[in-house]
Design goal:
Layout (H helix, E strand, L loop, with lengths): L9 H34 L2 E9 L2 E8 H4 L2 H15 L5 H25 L4 H11 L7 E5 L2 H22 L9 H16 L7 H9 L8
Antiparallel strand pairs: 1-2, 1-3
Helix pairs in contact: 1-3, 1-6, 3-4, 3-6, 4-6
């Protein structure tokens, strides 16, 4: 009939939610793991370089990300832990952990972008190398690694936002299967009681590999 709109059935809606949950879960896991790895790797690379004047001439100075700031690396570890913890909690706990994951990503981005123009680490090295506390770095330049750390933070942020939005559709590690197994054991014992006057009970016991005459 014309003009009739098909109404989705509960089964089709459940299947759509399951597909959405699987897709967003895969994207979040990939984004979170990759983001943490990129942020950690970038923190160990050279972020800036320059020189300081000493008696023998210009002295080269370099600073790694960990010399500039330890925040991106620390938050990457926190974000990775939060990504794993998302599956260990439910409901409000999952929302809290997902928020922590998102905040870890946002903090990594902010710290990395601030470190992209930092000169304090090299100024400190310049003062030590020259023996003059007022010495500062000269010919300062920065590499692209701080921005790579920011990209890692963005990936962590994406994982956190996905967890906040779709985390309710994701599976959780729990003792449900253990409880089901514990509850099933008494039922199996109860099922082992066979009524010899009921042929169907005898056949079911034989199908389970039990001796119906041993009760």
């Amino acid at each position: 009939m014309e003009g009739v709109t098909a109404v989705p059935t509960p089964r089709s809606e459940a299947a759509g939610s399951a597909r959405t949950g699987r897709l967003t879960l895969a994207v979040a896991l990939l984004s979170g793991a990759l983001g943490a790895a990129v942020a950690l790797l970038a923190s160990r690379q050279q972020w800036s370089e320059g020189t300081v004047a000493v008696a023998g001439g210009p002295f080269p100075l370099t600073a790694r990300g960990s010399d500039v700031t330890g925040v991106p690396a620390a938050l990457a570890v926190v974000g990775l832990a939060a990504l794993v913890a998302v599956f260990a909690v439910r409901r409000a706990g999952r929302l809290a952990v997902a928020a922590l994951l998102a905040l870890s990503g946002a903090g990594t981005i902010a710290a990395a972008l601030l470190g992209a123009s930092d000169r304090a680490a090299l100024d400190e090295q310049a003062a030590k190398a020259s023996g003059d506390t007022s010495a500062t770095v000269q010919a300062l330049s920065h590499t692209a690694w701080p921005y790579a750390a920011a990209v890692g933070g963005a990936l962590l942020l994406v994982a956190g936002l996905l967890a906040l939005r779709y985390g309710r559709l994701w599976p959780a590690m729990s003792g449900r299967h253990e409880r089901d197994g514990a509850a099933a054991r008494p039922r199996r014992k109860q099922a082992a009681r066979v009524d010899p006057d009921r042929p169907e009970d005898l056949w079911k016991a034989l199908d389970r590999g039990e001796d119906p005459t041993g009760a």
